[in-house]
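To the structural biology subgroup,

Please find below the input and predicted structure for WGS project CABT00000000 data, contig 2.72, which we are adding to the shared reference set this quarter. The sequence is reproduced verbatim from the submission form. If anyone notices a discrepancy with their own records, reply to this email rather than editing the shared folder directly, so we keep one authoritative version.
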Amino acid sequence: MEASTTPKPLPNRPEQKMPAIPKGSRIQKRPLPAPLSHRLSSSASRSSAISTIPTDTDGYRPPPRAPHTLIIKVTSNAPFMSLVKRVRKGLESRSSMSRQQSTKGLPLTARIAALDTSSGGNSQGDGQGPVEDALDDVVLVATGRAIQKAVEVGCFFTRERDLNVLLRTRTVRGVDDVARGEEGDDGDDGSEEEEGNGARVRAVSCVEVGVRWRAT
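Predicted structure (tokenized):
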């Protein structure tokens, strides 16, 4: 029995490459939008809160966030110790008393997940994983070259015995403008360009590092 020699495409690799830009044009990258993260509210149930969250391009549904969660967007030129201090400051502001008070604004299912976490129980088997992720005190969000720095900060806090560090990967979409040259200002509309308006959509890898206090 002969094995097939046809190479199979990778699961996350696009089948077709992006079309080439017109001659004399250049790419102008826009700032990446912040990844969507819906906040949990006391009036919304777990099922309704999760079902209304849109999925990423790869089908990943980001977890909802608690009102007290601090989200830090990491850049590639951010100093390492500056990020560490920001995470520590966010963790210190969430003392044991404030973390107990913060659950008052969460739905009943999120409160139960917090109790299961504090008692050492495992709520992943109950299908409450997204609600469990909402209990993060600080979340580092990084894309592109900043991913390595966010992972390094997360690894730094794994040495703390009283902290839990979680790593999640996702995909976000970025929009780039195609700046035409002087010769192409009044030329074609660029039928090969996506949506025909001088803009291109690209997929960008994103990493979220969640840091929370470990249950005692």
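Summary notes: The first helix runs from residue 46 to 51. The two ends are 58 Å apart (CA to CA).

Regards,
Lab coordination
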